[in-house]
Amino acid sequence: ETGVTQTPRHLVMGMTNKKSLKCEQHLGHNAMYWYKQSAKKPLELMFVYSLEERVENNSVPSRFSPECPNSSHLFLHLHTLQPEDSALYLCASSRGGGEWDTEAFFGQGTRLTVV
Amino acid sequence: AQKITQTQPGMFVQEKEAVTLDCTYDTSDQSYGLFWYKQPSSGEMIFLIYQGSYDEQNATEGRYSLNFQKARKSANLVISASQLGDSAMYFCAMAHSGYALNFGKGTSLLVTP
In chain B, which residue's Cα lies nearest the Cα of A41? Predict the structure, then answer.
């Protein structure tokens, strides 16, 4: 248990569905991240939030919409996804503050399948 | 752009033996951090060890040690006394100015009895 919890663990959705992934951390961290892990590819950074403000968006399609209502919660809203969006979506948190640090903890991920 | 290279897609090691997983990186930054994570089949990324670019001594955490050779830009992970539970994917990652980690493609380690 790393202190970062993701729900659901598995999700199957149709291309016309709307769903949301949830991430929660109670580590007192100020930065939260969404990563995408596709088969045989390195982890791809999608979004970074620091103190509830988005500070980085790596050219992610608009069908992925993040939301960070407070420093403990991060959502990824999904709509009209494509089959190639099927992947493991990992949430992470760190102390943040504008500098990398030695603590970056990940959740267990949500395995998403788009049918 | 920062780049992490892990050249070993898969490795085998016998139980109780030591194994080295390779990682090289490319950066023009003087200040950066290097990380190793373990990802079992469950999917969770488990932090193993960290090395700062200015740290003079190699990092160690229990059975994990990081062989940091700054001039060669390598940060190899050494696992001593391998256990069956060490079978997993292992990712090398680097952080530089900014927030997030850049990851390599990973190495799949299988520990055999």
Answer: B105
Residues of B with Cβ-Cβ distance to A102 under 8 angstroms: 33, 50, 52
Set of chain A residues whose Cβ sits within 8 Å of the Cβ of B44: 2, 106-109
CA neighbor of A34 nearest in space, from A50, A24, A45, A42: A45
Distance of CA B31 to the CA centre of its chain: 18
In one-letter notation, the amino acid at residue A73 is H
Q: What is the mean pLDDT of each run of 10 residues along chain B (113 residues)?
A: 88 97 92 91 89 91 96 97 97 77 92 96
